[in-house]
Amino acid sequence: MVSEALIRHGDGSMPPRHVAIIMDGNGRWAEARGLSRTAGHRRGVEAVREAVEGAAELGIAHLTLFGFSSENWRRPSGEVSDLMGLLRLYLKKEIKALDKNGVRLSVIGERDRLAPDIQQLIADSEALTRANTRLGLTIALSYGGRQEIARAARELAHEVAAGRLDPAVIDEALLESRLWTAELPDPDLLIRTSGEQRISNFLLWQSAYAELVFVEALWPDFTRQHLAQAVAAFAQRERRFGGVAG
Fold first, then answer.
1. Which residue among 115, 178, 211, 218 has the highest number of C-beta atoms inside a 10 angstrom radius?
2. Active-site residues (predicted)?
3. Number of domains in the chain
């Protein structure tokens, strides 16, 4: 369980509504132990469980995890195959527990690049958990922020070309409505593990005003206590959204 002292904010503030996490460090965790990179990814699945359970305990409404990027397709074919195998296993083994715990699962990204059976597992998992309200868990698979924005722009361009849309009415809200995350609030807090300090093409549009917290722990070592500490750090930030302090 997450410590109550970490959950309770001194100023009485609410936890961030939406937390996004770049799960980094599986390979380095495995290499440091003389294990295969797949072993690191497998251990990383346990950290996903920790993060999901911790988010629910903290009262976070939405948790988005960067599971597999558009660029990750460039990795060695064996590693990609192992990652897809772990994804299949996760969707088959964890979905009942997610449903039981009130977690709603959704997936964003270029689904058509995933194997047909994985696409079906995702669709089935989303359907099973659609009515759940305790926590919205979004997993970004075959996802890239630039690709997402370009796709949204293409959709608007097609509508303009077809005469269904006046380009003069295109604004931030309209473009945002074409993003994969259209039904999600922007992340309040973006966490990256492993000590790296970059966002790596993740939620580029959505993270315009997100607070960033960089955690030294490698992803397989990430626990709900790390999450709670990041949320506590968030509570100390003053968010002005381009304005001035009150």
1. 218
2. 24, 72 (proton acceptor)
3. 1
Alpha-carbon dihedral angle through residues 210, 213, 47, 55, given to the nearest 10 degrees:
-50
Catalytic residue among 24, 82, 188, 221: 24
Please say if the pLDDT value at position 5 is more than 50. no
Per-residue pLDDT, 242: 65
From the list 72, 101, 132, 201, the catalytic residue is: 72
**Which CATH number fits the domain that encloses residue 219?**
3.40.1180.10
24 among known catalytic residues: yes
- Residue 166 designated active-site: no
- The per-residue pLDDT for range 49-94, each reduced to its tens digit, is 999 999 999 999 999 999 999 999 999 999 999 999 999 999 999 9
**Cα–Cα–Cα angle for 106, 196, 198, nearest 5°?**
65
The count of other CB atoms within 10 Å of the CB of residue 149 is 16
State pTM to two decimals: 0.92
